[in-house]
Amino acid sequence: MDEIIVFITASSEDEAAKIARSLVESKLAACVNIIKNLRSIYSWEGKVVDEPEVLMIAKTQKSLFENLMKKVRELHSYTVPEIIAMPIIAGSEDYLKWLREVTG
Fold first, then answer.
1. Phi, psi of 77 (to 5 degrees)
2. What total number of domains does the chain contain?
3. What CATH number does the domain containing 8 carry?
4. Which of 56, 55, 58 lies closest to 88 in space, CA to CA?
5. Do 2 and 63 contact (CB within 8 A), yes or no?
6. pTM (2 d.p.)
7. Are 26 and 101 in contact (CB under 8 A)?
8. In this predicted model, what pLDDT tens digit does every residue of 11-50 receive, in sequence order?
């Protein structure tokens, strides 16, 4: 399977919606879910940071990951945005077929 899920965090729902819409409109993702009220605790520039964030879950194809990552970096406010991909190891064939049809 060449389908993947990409996790991307953002500073706000508005920023996430802007990025998600761009990814779907440019056919780099079939669908992007936006999850609000995420709390992230992470190390940044020698400090432990505790901030609210928004999580995007993008469904796409592995072959599109590099272009998706470039698009996110263009639109994202973070210096180092979280953009990580995981393989989809199984799924509804109808859904995966649709994902392939609407991306790329």
1. -85, -15
2. 1
3. 3.30.70.120
4. 58
5. yes
6. 0.94
7. no
8. 999 999 999 999 999 999 999 999 999 999 999 999 999 9
